[in-house]
Write a structure and sequence with these properties.
Blueprint: H1 2-26, E1 31-35, E2 38-39, E3 43-45, E4 51-52, H2 54-66, E5 70-74, H3 77-85, E6 91-92, H4 100-103, E7 106-108, E8 113-122, E9 137-142, H5 146-156, E10 162-167, H6 170-178, E11 184-188, H7 189-196, E12 201-213, E13 216-218, H8 226-239, H9 241-248
Parallel strand pairs: 1-5, 1-6, 9-10, 9-11
Antiparallel strand pairs: 2-3, 3-4, 7-13, 8-11, 8-12
Helix pairs in contact: 2-8, 2-9
């Protein structure tokens, strides 16, 4: 009886060791996530030169709860997507909408927020939501974003007199509005609300998009990061930490239910 028990303990120890070895080989010392840090309130560079914003605080919470280290790499939005799909980084975040096109080349975490679009113009402008996007108006959105796709597919390609100018940064686009170089910017509502508080701009209307934001990893999740991110996000939701972060940054703490991706 004793010998059988001892043999069982040996097998348990061996399998536990193999499991620990596998985990050690699968884990990385540092996970590198790309973002475009010019996108308040989601992520931006503060006056001290540090990363700040909603998703930066989420990253910090995940590092603490999941006992991992995440390096944030700041780059243009198009480069974030390319670096993720090519496996040059372990994943990406940044007010990123779930789309069918992106799902073909990357895998998403659970959704973290739902957003609509906003139309932003100069604070002295007489444009309304229609004239700011049509009648020869020049509107802008970031290159590679769903905002740019929406304007192109729903206005430009349908024959409306709309001119779309893409920028690498929403800050540059908003400054172009202020300088009178373009008429409007088409951006997600939380971002619009953040910038109109500190720049001579105003929101003249919103467009319902029913878009859900999430984070992404390369297709197939080669580094096994997806379950770690989901565990961290779900823990934030269960503890109330995610709602606390949203409230801190002035957003309604409306969080999509855990479960399958939504779009």
């Amino acid at each position: 009886m004793r010998s059988r028990h001892a043999l069982l303990m040996v097998f348990v120890a061996v399998f536990a060791f193999i499991g620990l070895q596998s985990q050690a080989f699968a884990d990385k010392d540092v996970y590198k996530l790309a973002t475009h840090a010019a996108y308040k309130p989601w992520e931006f560079i503060d006056e001290k030169g540090d990363f700040a914003g909603i998703e930066i605080e989420m990253i910090e919470a995940i590092e603490a709860s999941q006992n991992i280290e995440i390096e944030v790499a700041n780059m243009p939005w198009d480069a974030c997507i390319a670096s993720t799909t090519q496996g040059k980084v372990d994943g990406m975040f940044g007010g990123m909408s779930i789309t069918e096109e992106r799902k073909r080349v990357m895998d998403y975490t659970r959704p973290i927020y739902r957003v609509d679009f906003a139309v932003v113009v100069h604070e002295d402008s007489d444009l309304n939501p229609v004239t700011a996007l049509t009648h020869g108006a020049v509107t802008s959105a970031n290159s590679g974003t769903t905002g740019a796709s929406w304007v192109r597919e729903n206005l430009v390609e349908k024959g409306f007199d709309t001119k779309l100018k893409v920028y690498d940064s929403y800050v540059a686009a908003l400054q172009a509005v202020i300088k009178g170089k373009i008429d409007s910017v088409f951006v997600d509502a939380p971002t619009a609300e953040s910038y109109v508080k500190e720049m001579p701009l105003k929101i003249v209307g919103t467009v319902s998009s029913n878009e859900y934001l999430a984070w992404a990893v390369p297709e197939g999740d080669p580094d096994g990061l997806l379950p770690i991110l989901n565990a961290g996000l779900n823990k934030m939701i269960e503890s109330g930490k995610m709602a606390e972060i949203y409230s801190k940054w002035g957003l309604p703490p409306s969080i999509p239910q855990a479960g399958p991706e939504q779009e």
